[in-house]
């Protein structure tokens, strides 16, 4: 890949509309009072819900980037 190809990719990436949807953070709320048996779960829930939102948001970004690569490489494939 040349630098010019990457520059074209970046230009295409800026022009493609983002069709994804970002996952919100803090989407799960547990009750204020919980049984002591739920204490470990409640502590893990906050952390894991943020990790899940990060993973989904990363997937949305990667999908957007793949759309730009698709639009860049499709004409190149037709030139063969």
Give the CA-based shape: rod-shaped
Note the main sheet. Answer: none
Strand fraction equals: under 5%
Helix-strand makeup class: mainly alpha
Number of helices: 2
Mean pLDDT over the full residue set:
90
Proportion in helices: 55-70%
Q: Write the H/E string, N to C.
A: HH
Please mark out the parts with pLDDT under 50 across 5 or more consecutive residues, or reply none. none
Integer tally of domains? 1
Count all strands and give the number: 0
Distance between the termini: 16 Å
Please state the CA-atom Rg, rounded to the nearest Å. Answer: 20 Å
Organism: Cupriavidus oxalaticus
Protein name: Phage integrase family protein
Textual characterization of the structure:
The chain has 80 residues and is an all-alpha fold. The protein has one domain (3-21, 35-78). The protein has helices at residues 3-15, 39-78. The mean pLDDT is 90.
Short description:
This protein is mainly alpha-helical. The chain is 66% helix and 0% strand. The longest helix is centred in the last third of the chain and has 40 residues, at 39-78.
Q: What key attributes describe this structure?
A:
80 residues; mainly alpha; rod-shaped; Phage integrase family protein
Provide the fold topology.
Elements: H1 3-15, H2 39-78
Organism: Cupriavidus oxalaticus
Protein name: Phage integrase family protein
